[in-house]
Amino acid sequence: MEALPPVKGAVPHSVRIALDYLMPESGLPYRLKRRVSGLGSLGRPRFIALADWQGGKIAREAKALGLSACVWAGAHDGPDTIFYQSILDQAVRGHDPFVRVQGGWLVRRLSPYCSRIELATLPRKRDEAHLLHAMGRETANVHLGTHKAIRAIQRTSQHENQYGCIGLRNRWQV
After folding, report:
1. pLDDT tens, residue order, the chain (174 aa)
2. Cβ–Cβ contacts within 10 Å for residue 75, how many?
3. What whole-number distance in Å separates Cα of residue 36 and Cα of residue 167?
4. With contact defined as beta carbons under 8 Å apart, do 98 and 147 qualify?
5. Do 47 and 9 form a contact (C-beta atoms < 8 A)?
6. Residue 141: what pLDDT?
7. Contacts of the segment 87-91: beta carbons below 8 A, 24+ positions apart
8. Are 169 and 129 in contact (CB under 8 A)?
9. Residues in CB range of 140: below 8 A, 6 or more apart
10. Distance between CA atoms of 74 and 67, rounded to whole angstroms?
């Protein structure tokens, strides 16, 4: 992360407020960097705050939030509201105190010495079905916070062999 390019130009005040909020102590100095990451968020501004704290490196990210794809695709008639924070608050799982929405920005803790695991680097013999099942459970835990979704999730899980991981595993053979 240290190799990321520094921010050039003005940084929105709302970004600084959001990043300051997640710092472990008030007034902690940090270096601002720019980052491009992810497929769904390409083109959205991301600011990384790097700091030294208690003998170690810490990193926080502020990423501009955007509306759901169903809004811009015209499949949604309701208000242009971003529900990210309310979804986090209602999720049926342990709350992460370092992830929140603030002033139109998703702010979260990053691990400065960790990187994404590329599937191509994993062993050829692996169990994608197990991985997809675990990912699906985590997604379900988020959606179980929406009480109207519980029955739909339960119906889908009853047909898992027909619609879920088993079918995907057969299509994703490498």
Report:
1. 888 889 999 999 999 999 999 999 999 999 999 987 766 666 788 999 999 999 999 999 999 988 777 676 776 666 777 878 888 888 887 788 889 999 889 999 988 776 667 777 878 887 878 888 888 888 878 777 777 767 766 776 665 555 444 444 444 443
2. 9
3. 33
4. no
5. no
6. 80
7. 87/142, 87/145, 87/146, 89/145, 90/145, 90/146, 91/141, 91/142, 91/144, 91/145
8. yes
9. 153, 157
10. 12
Q: Are strands 56-64 and 99-102 parallel, antiparallel or unpaired?
A: unpaired
Query: Residue written as tokens 């099942």?
Result: 133
**CA 38 from chain center: how many Å?**
10
Return the structure tokens found at 84.
């990210």
pTM score above 0.90: no
